Amino acid sequence: MAEAREPILQVRDLYKHFPLTQGIVFKKQIGAVKAVDGVDLDLFAGETLGIVGESGCGKSTMAKLLMNLERVTSGRILYKGEDITKLSGRALKAVRRNIQMVFQDPYTSLNPRMTVGDIIGEPYEIHPEVAPKGDRRKRVQDLLDVVGLNPEYINRYPHQFSGGQRQRIGIARGLALRPEIIVADEPVSALDVSVQAQVINLMERLQDEFGLSYMFIAHDLSIVRHISDRVGVMYLGKIVEIGGDEQIYEHPTHPYTQALLSAVPVPDPTAREHRERIILTGDVPSPANPPSGCRFRTRCWKAQERCALEVPALAVPAVFAGLDSPAAHDSACHFAEEKN
Amino acid sequence: MTTEPTVPSVPTEPPLLEVRDLHVEFRTRDGVAHAVNGVSYTVSAAETLAVLGESGSGKSVTAQAIMGILDSPPGFVTQGEILFRGQDLLKMNAEDRRKVRGAKMAMIFQDALSSLNPVLSVGNQLAEMFIVHEGMSRKDAKSKAIELMDRVRIPAARDRVGDYPHQFSGGMRQRIMIAMALALEPDLIIADEPTTALDVTVQAQVMELLAELQREYSMGLILITHDLGVVADVADYIAVMYAGRIVETAPVHEIYRRPAHPYTKGLLASIPRLDQKGRELYAIKGLPPNLLHIPPGCAFNPRCPMAQAVCRADVPPLYEVSPTRASACHFWKEALDG
Amino acid sequence: MPEPENHPDEAMEPAGGTGATMDLAQDEARGLERPPGHETAPGGTTEKPRSLWSDAWRDLRRNPVFILSALVIAFLVVISIWPGLIASGNPLSCNLANSQKGSAPGHPFGFDNQGCDVYTRVVYGARASVTVGVCATLGAAILGSVLGGLAGFFGGAGDAVLSRVSDIFFGIPIVLGGLVFLSVVTGTTVWPVIGFIVLLGWPQIGRIARGSVITARQNDYVQAARALGAGNSRLLLRHIAPNAVAPVIVVATIALGTYISLEATLSYLGVGLKPPTVSWGIDISQASSQIRNAPHMLLWPAGALSVTVLAFIMLGDAVRDALDPKLR
To answer: Which of A18, A336, C225, C237 has fewest C-beta within 10 Å?
Structure first.
């Protein structure tokens, strides 16, 4: 896991609102689901940026926006300085070679009617300039080998493989074009615990071998910590805290992050007695109707009047400004502080 | 087929539920899948037994067999006894079994949305429990339903009693399922992956509720899960299952500190720990076995780092590690000490 | 705290190294790669790749309903192409003197009103039914799949328009529509009838195709292909169509049976096929008034019609069972 250098991907002011409509023949917009509501991010070459958040926080939508599988409502996504949201046609296709995705569900992310060889080889059919025709079979077999599968299985069908193996096939497909960035949307959530470790190890090894940058999106905080260099926490379409993995996990300053971390079950019964549990009250508000000001205020134990009026900026909190402390990382809270 | 020694539990009172040498098979077109191969465990009142295993371990099938909701065909209980308060459920007729199910034993499933009837209001479904099993009037049943919804901390229960399942969030639906399970104050609750589909903050809420209710009603709780973290928080006793058999049982503190089976050790080592940023994760090599062709001898032997010839030949019985612990490994001593 | 890293047994390799890659490859070669049995796993250590189509075919082959109906249909197709194989006479050479006579040597089914040989007419009648059935099904299936599939894939205004248009067609009662539409048609070829059936039949298939495409479109593998840069034509032909076609095949096969029955109904009412085309519907129509005195005139064509329709519907059932449960 390399240190940060140049941002290879920059996200600025990203918004994605899904319109809510009424009417059968003539549709009238009556509102919007604000799935991603103002996100700024950097991804540096060679690093793993973990994005954690619970369901409805918008992380999967953000992944789709990065992959241009959904059109942004507004905002810019800069790959090496070029805004990919404005691209289409051939230019977009060329960029796609550099940013690839690994999907969550191993049972629906592979076309059941195609052989594994065809699935992994499809990128070469779509981008014939990457590999000459005679070379393709060898490349596919190499990819199978790289992800730890027997290259002789090239003619088998997805349903003849287990979940963990299918994820490997999905990873091999994502690697075919030698991308620089891989966006992994919950790549191990659907797998058994003993298989998760295999796939995580594989991904780490591939990162070293191929110099990949990962955006690793998941809800499992333990796994995200293990693989990530930096971590961003999302809530209701916004990033509420972002920093190095140790900063976030050992010195969280945003109340949501603190609650999230305290809620994670730790496989250690002695911790049971010593843990301070923050149990959040209430439900996550609807993304169609997020609270004014700070979105987290409806469930936050520190909420005050200011929180309803002013949206907190994602920046180093004033109380830590200038301090050389691991708590001095970006956090969107008016009253950010460490918990003891 | 030798009878497996029953799992010794911490002896407080006579066990509420005792499963003895249960065997369940699934007869499919491609062969017979041995889903459960000689499982025995006991649960007492006010005790939480966590049954831990991955997919294919047989933990859910065992629970379904206990509740009597096994899909049959293709599933069949071929051997064993399930004693609830001393009475063998498998020998009862369907009518008696149904009375026990619902009134004395209740089950909570993973996905509340598909377990609740989408076209009936929540209040209706809760009230039905009282009307059918206790012969209450509709009016009384409704107020009891509101009371239950309050008890599981659904805000504004009175207003929401007429709402439909899809109008609630995932965590709320899970609470409603818990309410339905509790309605008739059963002695035993089986929770099959109750929080797996929930967010971690909601998970914490629901598990806390479950633990609280268990204490209040002094119920026995069987918690079926694959999540070692959740188990550490709530269980008294753990049984680890693999390929349809129990491979280890122990009180919760001991199993984390000193596991006595290579599979348990492997599982514990392979989960990334929030409090331990590690190097590479330990990963158990290989894949869970095909239940149609379980390897001979110890089912774990192809993946086990300690496997020897005897492991491939003899199925290990549950060796007694201590009065409260057992391990189905020929080399449990080495596993314990290693 | 257990310290697995210090475990004396060095064989516990982390899966990151090439050593574990080999382990996995060996495990898989040993046939342990079956899906974990949270559902009962499909069996055996199959060496060969098995596509979903070959799985379905394997199931079909073992289904007695399929075998029976396929044999009947094969027989029907053969005699509709070469009726001379089992009927030596001419269906149109009739002798009024034999009108309504019962079975006689060389004429096992007897004679109809005009004195034509019922047996020969029944055999030759198969051609009309099979032709109309197959052509109408092909036409409706192609038209329905293309329109419905494109509507499902692109959605939006086109989909809305198509749905309303097909609602209109659904609203037209088929037999009534046939009476109205076909009564103005002159000529004795099969094409007006086929055209009419296609016109009124495509919405049913279109609706199935649309739903099936919408379902297929939501799968991650379609997103994955888009993410790779696949264009719409590749998505439709390579990814959507093979996965959406199964329900359409099922519906079309069953529809075949109903189209044959429909043709017979229209011919019975006098607006379908007309003489000299030989059709069971025509024969049934002419025989229906004589049920009491000469039941054989009705019995044989009606029986043939029933068997044919039944065979196709049974085929559709068998195909649905083979394609349905696993192939999602």
So the answer is: C237
Given the structure tokens 């032709």, which residue do they identify? C131
Best mutation target among A25, A159, A168, A266 (most C Cβ atoms within 10 Å) is A159
**Into how many domains does chain C fold?**
1
Torsion sign across C-alpha atoms A162, A168, A173, A176: negative
Find where tokens 């085309």 sit.
C277
Domain that holds residue C274: 65-82+120-327
Q: The CATH number of the domain where C125 resides is what?
A: 1.10.3720.10
Interface of A with C in 107-146 (CB under 8 A): 108-115, 122-123, 126-127, 145
Q: Is residue C164 part of a domain?
A: yes
Q: Is the pLDDT of residue B1 over 50?
A: no
Least confident of B297-301, C114-118, C221-225: C114-118
Whole-angstrom CA distances from C263 to C266, C272, C285 are 5, 6, 12
**Chain C residues within 8 A of B265 when measuring between CB atoms:** 2, 4, 7
The complex scores an ipTM of: 0.87
B149-166 pLDDT, tens per residue?
Answer: 988 888 888 888 888 988
> Is residue C8 packed enough to be buried (19+ CB in 10 Å), middle (13-18) or exposed (0-12)?
exposed
Contact B290 C43 (CB under 8 A): yes
In a domain, C193, yes or no: yes
Mean pLDDT, rounded, for B162-178? 87
Closest CA to C227 of A66, A72, A81, A82: A66
Assigned architecture for domain B14-104+186-271: 3-Layer(aba) Sandwich (3.40)
Q: B293 contacts in C (CB within 8 Å)?
A: 43-45
Query: If DSSP states are collapsed to H, E and C, what string results for A141-156?
Result: HHHHHHCCCCHHHHHC
Boundaries of every domain in chain B: 14-104+186-271, 117-185
Task: Answer whether B147's CB lies under 8 Å from B183's CB.
Answer: no
Minimum distance, in Å, between the CA of residue C18 and any CA atom of chain B: 12
Mutate to test the interface with B, among A193, A251, A258 (most CBs of B within 10 A): A193
In three-state form (DSSP H/G/I as H, E/B as E, the rest C), the secondary structure along C46-97 is CCCCCCHHHHHHHHHHCCHHHHHHHHHHHHHHHHHHCHHHCCCCCCCCCCHH
Q: At residue C2, does pLDDT exceed 70?
A: no
- At residue A42, what are phi and psi to the nearest 5 degrees? -125, 140
Confidence (pLDDT) at B277: 62
- Give residue B164's Cα distance to chain centre: 28
Contact (CB, 8 A) for C185 and C224: no
The verdict on whether omega for the bond into residue C276 sits within 30 degrees of 0, i.e. cis, is yes
- Contact of A157 with chain C, judged by CB distance below 8 Å, is answered with yes
Residue C20 lies in a domain: no
Determine the pLDDT at residue A48. Answer: 95
Is pLDDT of B238 > 90? yes
Residue whose structure tokens are 């009309």: C128
Residue-wise DSSP of A149-182? --GGGGG--GGGS-HHHHHHHHHHHHHTT--SEE
Tell me: the pLDDT tens digits for C28-82? Answer: 333 333 333 222 223 334 457 778 888 888 888 888 999 999 999 999 999 988 8
pLDDT tens for each residue of A224-243:
988 999 999 999 999 999 99
Taking the CB of residue B156, how many other CB atoms lie within 10 A of it? 10
CA distances A283 to A51, A293, B118, B257, Å, are: 21, 18, 21, 36
Which residues does chain A have within 8 Å of residue C50's beta carbon, measured at their own beta carbons?
156-157, 159-160
Within a domain: residue C50? no
**For residues A242 and C294, what is the distance between their CA atoms, to the nearest angstrom?**
91
pLDDT level of residue B204 (50, 70, 90 thresholds):
confident
At B329 the pLDDT is 92
pLDDT tens-digit series, residues B2-32: 334 445 445 556 788 999 999 999 988 778 8
